[in-house]
Amino acid sequence: MLSAICILLFCFLISFFPLITTSLNLTLPYQHPYPEAVVQELQRRVNESISRRQLLDTTINAQCQTGNPIDDCWRCDPNWVSNRQRLADCAIGFGQGAIGGRNGKIYVVTDSSDRDTANPTPGTLRHAVIQDEPLWIIFSSDMFIKLKHELIVNSYKTIDGRGTKVHITGNGCITLQYISNVIIHNVHIYNCRPSGNTNIRSTPTHVGHRGRSDGDGISIFGSRNIWIDHCALSHCTDGLIDAIMGSTAITISNNYFTHHDEVMLLGHDDRYLPDSGMQVTIAFNHFGVGLVQRMPRCRRGYIHVVNNDFTEWQMYAIGGSANPTINSQGNRYMAPVDPNAKEVTKRVETDEGEWSDWNWRSDGDVMVNGAFFVPSGEGLSNQYAKASSVEPKSAVLIDQLTLNAGVFGAPRDNSISISYGGGTTTGASGSGGAGSTGGNDSDFFGMIFGSGAAAKLSPSTTTTILLSHLIILVLYITTNHGGQLSLQLLHLL
C-alpha cells in the first residue's frame, strides 16, 4: 500500500509541476506588475523635457536644457556640487527606484590604490563600497584605479565620479551580487580581465573565497534597483554589462559603449525561469565604434530599448532567446556596410516557428543604411502596448538626447590603449590623474551609522521551502503514524 501511495503522490506532484515552475516567475518581489505603465511614464518624462527645452530655447540661455530628462533633472542647478544626492531623484525607467547612497554620508575616496582585497585600506574605493551603511562616494581628485581583483559592492552605494576623471580597470572590475540600490555614475570602466581564486572582503564583517570572475565591466547578479548612468565602457574580456540570475529593476542610461564584442547580456540561461521577471530600461546610450553584437542579448524578461543611437555593429544589435519581450522605441539604427549584417535583430539558435509569437516591437525607430528590424508576436499589431497612446519621441532627436552620452567632457572616441583581447588599440591616453596615496587623516569616513543595508536576496529560497514541505508530507504519509491520513488520501484520489 505504501508503494501505491508513493506512486500516487509522485503523480500528484508531477501534475502540479507546471504550476510550481510558473510560480517561480513571481519570486522577484521588485518586478513591476505593469511594465507598460513604466514605459508610458518614461515617454511622458521625455516629452515634458523636450517641450520645456523648446519653450525656453528662444527666451533664455538654456544650455542645461537638452531634452534629456535625466540630465535636465540635476544639471540646471548651478549648485549641484553642494546637492549631489539630488541625482538619486533623476532616474527613469525600471531602475528609477535605485536610491544608491541617498541620505547617507559623503565618503571621499582619497587613495587610488587597491593593495589588499581582504583588508581594504581606509580611503580607497574598495573600503568605501563594502560598508553596510548608505554612502555617497565621491573622489578627491582625478584617479586611475587598477583593481587587484573584483570590486564587490554592498547595498545602498552611489559611486559618483562627477567633477573628476575616474578610471576603473584591472582584474574583475565591478560586481553587484545579491544586493540592491546601487548607482554608478560618470566613470570610465575598461580593460577588465578575469581573476579570482582569492579572499575578498564583501562587508566589514565578511571575507570569503572567490572563484575566478568572468572579466565583466559590471556584473549584476541576483540584484535589483540598479542604475548605471553616464559611464564609458570598453575593452573587457567578457561583457561590458551583464545582468543575470533574477536581477531586475535596472536602468542603463547615457552610457558610451565602444570597442567590444559581446556588449551586454541580460539573462543567465534559457532554462532559468526567474529571469522571466527581469525588467531593464536601456535609454539614451551611444553604441559606438568597434562593437560586434549583444546590444543587448536578452533571455526572457521585458527589455525597453528607447532613444539610443546605434552607430555600429558587425553581427547584430539586439538579440534574444527564450521569449523575451523587446520594446524598441525611438532609436536610430545605422547598419554596417556588410550586406549580410543589415538586420538589427537576431533570434539566437531558435527556429522561426518558435519565435514567431515572441513580442518584439519597433515603434518610431529610424533605420539608416539599409537597417531593418524584424518584429514578431504582438509587435506586428498596433495593439502591442498599452503605452501606444503616448508615442515615443522621434529618433530625429537622437543627436540631442544622446549629446552627453558617456563621461562628461571625455573624448567621444574612447580610444584607450589595451594590450590584450584581440590586439592593441591606441589613442588618447585615458589614465587621468594618479590621485592621492595618503589621506589617513582625511574625513573619508564621516558617516552616520544607520540601519544598514538590505538583507541579501536568495532566488532559491521559495523552491527550498516548497520542497522541504513536500518531503515532510511524503515522510509523514509513508510512516505508521500517517496511516489514517494515507487511507483518506487514497479515498480522495
Arithmetic mean pLDDT = 82
Distance between the termini: 14 Å
Query: Uncertain segments of ≥5 residues (pLDDT<50)?
Result: 7-27, 384-390, 416-493
What's the CATH H-level homologous superfamily? Answer: Single-stranded right-handed beta-helix, Pectin lyase-like
Strands side by side in the biggest sheet: 1-2-5-8-13-16-20-24-27-30
The total beta strand count reads 31
Largest sheet report: 10 strands, parallel
Q: Report the total helices.
A: 9
Range of strand content: 25-35%
Give the count of structural domains. 1
Task: Using the alpha-carbon principal axes, give the shape.
Answer: globular
CATH top level assignment: Mainly Beta
Question: At the third CATH level, what is the topology name?
Answer: Pectate Lyase C-like
What's the alpha carbon Rg, rounded to whole Å? 24 Å
Structural category? alpha/beta
Q: Approximately how much helix is present in the residues?
A: 10-25%
Pfam families: Pectate_lyase_4
Keywords: Calcium, Lyase, Metal-binding, Signal
Enzyme class: lyase
Signal peptide: 1-23
